[in-house]
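S1.2 Input.
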Amino acid sequence: MRTLPPTRRPRPLAAALCALALAGAAHGQDGPLDRLDDALAFGGSDDAVRARLSGTLDLEGYYLRQPAPGLIFSEGNRIFNPRLSLFLDGQLGQHLYAFVETRADNGFDPGEAGPAVRLDEYVLRLTPWEDGRFNLQIGKFATVVGSWSPRHLSWDNPFVSAPLPYENLTGIWDTTAARAANEVLAWAGLLPRPGHGGAYLEPYNDVPVIWGPSYASGAAALGAVGRFDYALELKNASLSSRPETWSPTETQWQHPTVSGRLGYRPDEMWSLGVSASAGTYLQPSAGPTLAPGAGLGRYREIVVGQDIGFAWHHVQVWAEVYEARFQIPQVGNADTQAYYVEAKLKFTPQLFGALRWNQQLFSTLPGATGAGRWGRDVERVDIAPGYRLTPHVQVKLQYSIERQEADLQRWGDMVAAQLTARF
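S1.3 Output.
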């Protein structure tokens, strides 16, 4: 049994709510932030060289039932999760662009033990033509797959959490290769696990279909031609890979992941897209556990996705569907389908509300005991009102209720609050 890291001292959700109240007192007091915006912009050589520093300060609080949902790593019921994000944009002439994002927090995901300060993204992009038909970038950046990653930052996401496909942990481990179907069911908590007292997921081994925005390292070609846009990336880790494997020095390049998306905008209101990805989901350290005669390249995660977006006046709607397959030599294919539909409505220029329906379904696995499904089917509803106190400060609340097909626990819920100040 893997020993979990020591639990941090829980802090009450009231701490975050107190911060929201203090922010309310700042309503209409944006003068200092506006002046800070001006001070953090630089231009020289007749604007041939430009740079701008910006950022966000997020104060999040969670109250939840155990086991913790998604990518929240905590054995407690209350979490306080502050985060400072800094963004540096630079432009050299008309053809060269650079971007760096650094974060200071308690770990990439709430409750996770990780580096306090990290470089989450760094990109160097070349744009040979001004019409945007072709761009080439290298570095560490969010995946081009799907439509959620471009709006995953706290100011743009109407919710506090990510949609289910980007955070729901499955029964697949990336540290050990499964050797039997029942072993996968045990990892998913559907069968007793030897030496493990409960049937919960093991959050420090399990992976989702896509781990958040998936900031893996590599290169991408992207652009737009007429009503079509395209993106193709080659990265060092799969969509399901965990944050500590994303840096170029952490994962070997013998088994890169190839992903892409093709989008189409028929008019101003609609956007459509299809995505695909294929790559090895096991970490190199899993080598000694592989099936006889099987290499890492045979343990592939294959993902196909479809996305749609709609905007009309004060209404925005997004939906994504993902079909994922984890190939397990000598066991079979572990298939799952995950999707969500979310809508955002602006009631006033400051007040908005969002509603999201999420679901994930799992297939049967050959050779498994009983019904043989290799994961618990799950359904979740997220509700999130939000208010922009000023052009620089917004607050969000979220309530989520989740139902799993499980004997141990069928229902769980979570309350979250988030204050975001941007500059």
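S1.4 Remarks. The chain has three helices and 17 strands.
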